[in-house]
Automatic annotation (TrEMBL):
Ranges where the record places region Disordered: 41-65
Keyword set, alphabetical order: Methyltransferase, S-adenosyl-L-methionine, Transferase
Upper lineage: Eukaryota, Viridiplantae, Streptophyta, Embryophyta, Tracheophyta
Database matches in Gene3D superfamilies: 2.40.50.1070, Nucleic acid-binding proteins, Vaccinia Virus protein VP39
Gene Ontology terms, MF aspect: RNA methyltransferase activity; S-adenosylmethionine-dependent methyltransferase activity
InterPro entries in alphabetical order: MeTrfase_TrmA_CS, NA-bd_OB-fold, SAM-dependent_MTases_sf, TRAM_dom, U5_MeTrfase_fam
Name the UniProt record assigns to this protein: TRAM domain-containing protein
Biased composition (Low complexity): 52-65
Zinc-finger listed as a keyword: no
Amino acid sequence: MAVLPSYGFRRLNSLIGFQKYRTTSPSFYCCASISVEQKSKEEDEELQPSISTSNSSTSKTKPSTFFPKKNQTLELVCESLGFKGKGVCKVEETGFVVMCDRALPGERFIGRVTRKKGSYAEVQKLKTITPHSDLVEAPCEYASACGGCKTQNLSYEAQVRAKEQQVHELVIHVGNFSANDLEFANVMKPIVPCDIQFNYRNKMEFSFGTQKWLPVEELHERQEGVNDYALGLHAPGFFDKVLNVQKCLLQSDAANTVLAIVQDCWRDPELGLSPYCVHKHVGFLKHLILRTGSDAKTGSPELMVNFVTSSYKPELLQPLVDQISSISEVVSIINNVNTSVGNTSVGEAEYILYGKSSISEALRGITFQISANSFFQTNTYQAEVLYRLIEECAGLRGDGSEVVLDLFCGTGTIGLTLAKKVKHVYGYEMVPQSISDARRNAENNGISNATFIQGDLNKISDNFGDQFPRPDIVISDPNRPGMHLKLIKYLLKLRAPRLIYVSCNPATCARDLDYLCHGLEEKNIKGCYKLKSLQPVDMFPHTPHIECVCFLELE
């Protein structure tokens, strides 16, 4: 995975409350708060802090540089969501920014400062005084502990409002676009919500663990041995503790059936199965990955089950294979073997234990073969919406005369959906397996005008571009760190007439849009694009993740 380069932190400070925006008060970054004087340890535990209001003599005499101390308690009112879905709060007297996990807009709560990070602090929520304004009951029993769906207890309408607001504020404060510009209102489009808020994920990765995560109030019930084993999702902040999950509301019903079967029998001592221990580096089972697709001809569901293990011992997995293969939707059971001490889910070797080596999925008229480790958009339903928006932004003439450069192309999903309307698609991707899948997908769909090239776009050389003609359209879909400065400089030199930036991280997206449109003076880089539209898309309901489709034209 690419590493965010040092220049990437240049304007991300507003996202987490750095000094530059500490004295401003846009609603996205700041919340009203009432300062609470630090109390003794016993009083902290009783959650009864003494409150100092802004009208008190104490608050009046506080210096402007005041910021909370570690273990101090504060009463805060959250107004919006920020980085990773954390609630953004602000000490009223000074504008000091405080971030709190699982604090939601409108919620008044008491939090204890856990750590300071220079110009902002993090707090742990201790007690809710008044619940947030869009409170709903979370349907998932694990919602309060699992880190996957932090905002299930926030109404979906409020979730998409918060995401849209987040993008808007980032484009202004990180991207340096003016909210006073009359054209800006036309550039920022309303967020596209997802019609399906549950059972939308076509891939879920569960981990096996030797230590089950338990909430504090249940720690006295901890058991030893197999009874403490877990299969589920890592508890937030813990690499070695796993929240045991019997059912996940984000994945398909068929996937939940498989999960239930595995949960019912994998701890049976007679099977001889053991979870991998990340401390001692012993054990067999590392991950269970479930992928859902659909048959290209019938449209019926197809399910791939992938066991990631520390060694190749198919005889140990056979009892599980026998039971799982009886489910009609299961068409593929794979064993990825990862012998490294790390706990990654990608194996060094792959074995087929049952059925096919891949499953299929259709997207905008193209059928894709999905192998165990290949990338594919996780929400198939909303990917249709996303790719339609990309095609609309491209404004293809439809006469087969245009050349498309598809950067970070993955398995070729975006480029291949456009290929039949253009002269040629050139795709670049760092992962060799993804390039192999892209070429196979092109061949299987009878597409001959697509070329896929393996290469690291964060390390482009001076001769990059020799393998393709000057494109009419560039599509860039980087991972969360965004684009490397070398690539941005190349794109500014290339000067393609149209550029579509697809982003899964609005912070780095705003930064890169700033460079592409306004340049970077200290690097003597001049921008040459004009942002014409920015369309947020909610790909993952109940999570903090946001997708954006940005359309830029050469000035």
